[in-house]
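Can't paste images in this forum, so I'm doing it all in text. The chain is below; anyone willing to post the predicted structure tokens underneath?
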Amino acid sequence: MKNYALTAAIALAALMALTGCSVTAQCRIRNSTGQKVVVTSGHTQKAIVIPVGSVRCLQHMAGAVTVDRVNGTKWLYKNLSPLQFKGTSYATFDKGLFSSSLSIDVVIENDGKIYVIADSLNVTKDNYRNSQPSGFPLIPSE
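Text version of the structure:
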């Protein structure tokens, strides 16, 4: 009986060590471009469609992001990293038993600029445009 308990404890500790360290980083993206967009993470190579005025989540740790617009315009952002906001008012961090998640909220405007939002519950154009961290808003290259 003691060997079984010891084996189970070791197996559980190994499982927690393997899975407890994973962090999922994501961007909650609000589309304020005036048209449907497809946003692709250069890190994960995953793409999401975001209708006008909608918010969608994209798992993305760091690196390039591409925004394709219906009109054929493509915007490229060289470095968007949710991890750079860890421990700030721009990020929410949820620690779970087997994984943790770090999320940031951003808005893509019709001129292609990406703004990061500190308080997603109280968003107006004035408060997110006037309170950007260093390096923001991101300006796309075409």
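Residues 24-129 form one domain. The beta strands are 22-32, 37-41, 47-50, 55-59, 65-69, 74-77, 91-95, 99-109, 114-117.
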